[in-house]
Automatic annotation (TrEMBL):
InterPro entries: ADH-like_C (IPR013149), ADH-like_N (IPR013154), ADH_Zn_CS (IPR002328), ER (IPR020843), GroES-like_sf (IPR011032), MycoS_dep_FDH (IPR017816), NAD(P)-bd_dom_sf (IPR036291). This is S-(Hydroxymethyl)mycothiol dehydrogenase. Residues 14-361 form the Enoyl reductase (ER) domain. Its EC number is 1.1.1.306. Its cofactor is Zn(2+).
Amino acid sequence: MPQTVKGVISRSKGAPVELTDIVIPDPGPGEVVVDVKSCGVCHTDFHYREGGISDDYPFLLGHESAGVVSEVGEGVTEVAIGDFVILNWRAICGDCRACKRGEPWYCFDTHNASQKMTLTDGTELEAALGIGSFAEKTLVAAGQCTKVPEADPAVVGLLGCGMMAGIGAAINTGEVTRGKTVAVIGAGGVGCAAIAGSALAGAGTIIALDIDAKKLTWAKDLGATDTVDTKGMSEDEVVAAIQERTGGFGADVVIDAVGLPATWRQAFYGRDLAGTVVLVGVPTPEMELTVPLLDVFGRGGKLKSSWYGDCLPDRDFPMLVDLYQQGRFPLEKFVSERIGINDVESAFEKMANGQVLRSVVEL
């Protein structure tokens, strides 16, 4: 039988979110229902509310989650009732050209649940990133669930989006290894995750750059060896600051966790010759980039963008949870506060003001 539960929705652009009744259908073939235990408040949910993703209102917000599988549909073999899982928004198909060539983290045909969750009047809800987990229960494709060792949901659920994006940008996309020098531009949640991932990989010098002194304090706590307050700096001054801390050469890997043309150019020129640039901050559609083509040719190296940290959830989530439980990866430091499901709107305000790394809804 379909179930009615409480969930947080956005009805129109810029309007405050609201807690209301939503209907969860019985899972169909390949689908599961998850009892949500936690959900991080991510910038992407705010972008949905503001119409920055699409205008397919109403949205069921929330996507950075952990929970327990409570129902499974026909043909589901990936998980079983009672499994503790982290949700992901890229259930791989296993059959596209990326999957067939052994690179499933690039899957070009990811999918979500076929059915829609609805309001009680039958209005279909567009689930944020195909998850919609600011709710007591949610319906997802079975492949969006990764079974992991049971742990604090508020902590490990953050791997479902922003933390994995940053960690993966460093380790998977940037290929940071022991002794490499790394600079991370932007020390918000994703940038700090890239810093923590670089530290986990054994990087030597790790430089955090931001215009907010509080964020630089977070970065230092998560593994940055050097911090640079870039407020008021020109692009050339930012590049020089990176070079000064890397023997005059520039960093082996520079991660742009902001996603502006200016910060990308800082990353491009702030890396060493043959170094790597990783773009993980998300640009907006109107942004354009101008760089002399001769500089692209002459400096060599790799210019990469990072999709969800180029992660493979079944590979990466269990490993990172295990490292967290061993005390080798401080994932708990990303949880700034634990809140109730009624507090999402106020959490958006704190996020916009740079007061938190992550607010986490506990259900």
